């Protein structure tokens, strides 16, 4: 727990809070200032917008401790504010609200438009207000209310203040307080995360034939080894899994049924999918499929995937080209954030490491090597930076050389 | 929709930050304006043990104006740049682009260094800063190193930060009086992340012509010597020199194969050039 001290609506307040408390929760739960509304809680809807150090701020994605000693003005503190008073009258006149849920945030953003924009067009106002969602009014009344207040104030000779009276640099709310030193940060007693392993989905779930992936994409790679070697290597599921960064099997595969996990770390996000998969292959056509499903307990996300692969001769002799057709569906918290293209980028980077490991393994085998060669075992996109940078450099050079 | 419980530190010096983030025994995340990290924490996509708030460091909240370049502290906000609290050396490029990032309430806290380090391929700063030829300065246990903005993004959501390193400032070159620039982003809704970004900067007096295709779902595609696709910047109508087919080929080489995707990105760059500023 930490002591958070703010200047809220002109009064100094202090309360003991957990560092994870965002500003809106601090105001609502500790100070009972429930005029600040919470809609989406991830910075999209604008309902929680209020003034921090005089400028509009999203209080749901701003932590209270990050605003230590700052001036916070909520809708309750704008009762006697001149612009807000005029806006209230205009919202009433123009029917700028119905249920009222968006209104506190709407009024704070509208006040900012009136304060800062000298002579905005209707479009300018709509763009400036686009960070505040209203599901009742259709915005027409809100825009008209703002236009009315601006026209009236400019007529009275009150000019806009483009910088909103802010002169300081840095995030609103920052720079008011003394540091929180590292000494006051307690090391955790048990560093090991208390995350329980997710239960793998039941094998029966893979046999649902009506399932179709949400997103599909293709990837190809080439390895410098003969087709027969690569095809034979792919029959050894354990060896293939060992090439997949972050993957590990829970037990030996039986009849192509696989049971294991894969750890993925991308930027600040890390996930650990527990899952199962069925692997089938056809020697005649040298094609195979992998159907899998997995769960990440930490983010409560699930994924299902279908990978089809085809092994064929490459452009040069003793080269093999592998075409992958990847389809997947992602649900849960991870899906809320990720875009399919990002997943393709990550998949591309995982495959790049897989290919690197595959080459190492195949060379090791064809060289008659025993045991395990050294390989990249974890998918940490940051740690791969150097190999990736080299890859980009190589591609760039190849392209330059071809052009000249 | 509450983050996991975490510890919080707000050091007042970069050395202290470097010491804190070097701790391997815990998941440590740096936080600037929290406008990208905040949602990820609330959604529990990120579950750190310790948050290191960088905004208490004075050095990160200022800028210094040099003869050939300007150094902008990592915790300077989009609104600081939009409102010209930071001197503009880019003939309006940075303030104009800043004005189009998300929404004002987000711009009041979101920072230039945070956005670059978050490394969302659709973020505006990556594309425009790569177009003007900016660099980032990273400080770590081994001292400082300088990386170009386009190299700073390794891939989606992954910045080139070595263990213990922190982005301290962004160095933007001063454009000459002959410089022109353009920026176009394709969004269905105001303030959302772009589907395609085109950006360019030509500065004939300094012999620079750069074009950037951003929002590619990975690193932006940077054409550092772009004379053959957008000209050297001396033509009165820059769009006359635009070679959309060459740009399409470059995108294909960079791995963008979907024809619709490619067309959207080529069109974004064309529009950026058609809207070249100053007029």
What kind of sheet is the major sheet of chain B? 5 strands, antiparallel
Number of helices of chain B: 11
The CATH fourth-level homologous superfamily of the largest domain in chain A: START domain
Give the oligomer, counting copies of the same chain as homo and different chains as hetero.
Answer: heterodimer
What structural category arises from helix and sheet content of chain A?
alpha+beta
Give the name of the CATH architecture of the largest domain in chain B: 2-Layer Sandwich
Specify the structural class of chain B: alpha+beta
Q: How many helices of chain A?
A: 10
SSE pattern of chain A: EEHEEEHHHHEHHEEEEEEHHEH
**What count of domains describes the coordinates of chain A?**
3
- Total DSSP E strands of chain A: 13
* CATH topological fold name of the largest domain in chain A: Alpha-D-Glucose-1,6-Bisphosphate, Chain A, domain 4
Shape summary of chain B? globular
List keywords for this structure.
heterodimer, A: 404 residues, alpha+beta, Ubiquitin-like (UB roll), DNA polymerase, domain 1, Alpha-D-Glucose-1,6-Bisphosphate, Chain A, domain 4, 3 domains, eight-stranded mixed sheet, five-stranded mixed sheet, 10 helices, 13 strands, 24% strand, elongated, disordered C terminus, B: 279 residues, Uridine Diphospho-n-acetylenolpyruvylglucosamine Reductase, domain 2, Uridine Diphospho-n-acetylenolpyruvylglucosamine Reductase, domain 3, five-stranded antiparallel sheet, four-stranded antiparallel sheet, 11 helices, 14 strands, globular
In a nutshell, what does this entry contain?
The complex is a heterodimer of chains A (404) and B (279). Chain A has 404 residues and is an alpha+beta fold. Chain A has helices spanning 23-30, 82-94, 103-116, 122-128, 140-155, 227-234, 237-243, 333-337, 340-366, 385-403; strands at residues 2-8, 11-17, 49-52, 55-58, 71-73, 215-223, 247-249, 257-266, 269-282, 287-296, 301-313, 320-331, 379-380.
